[in-house]
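Hi P.,

Sorry for the delay on this. The queue was packed all week, but I finally got your sequence through. Input first:
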Amino acid sequence: MMYFLSQGFRVVAHDRRGHGRSSQVHTGHDMDHYASDASAVAEHLDLRNAIHIGHSTGGGEVARYVVKYGEPQGRVAKAVHLAYVPPLMLKTEKNPGGTPIEVFDGFRKALADNWAQFFLDVPSGPFYGFNRSGTKSSQGIIQN
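Then the structure:
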């Protein structure tokens, strides 16, 4: 963001529900809600011809936003995806390379069993790849 600011661009970064300083809600964590929230920000600020940049979950949010709101409302000039999560991660007949449902079932169970521990366990292993041989974990990243 700092780079774009230094180049004279206006930069708007919204605080996605459940992240940062927003309320820590336990519902609405899906691409439809994220896209709807982004649309509310774009409408409130009357953004036009905006370049939407998304990284990780933000990339999936950008994809859903552009299709569902941005393009129909004429608000998007470009979209950029950086190492993003696709809008559909689940393995299905039409998405055979997706993640098996058992992984998501495990996440749901872990969240229900111990919400706080889940947010230490996921970055300790699969999220940052610290569970792979030859990698060195970072306690700072995990705790952040």
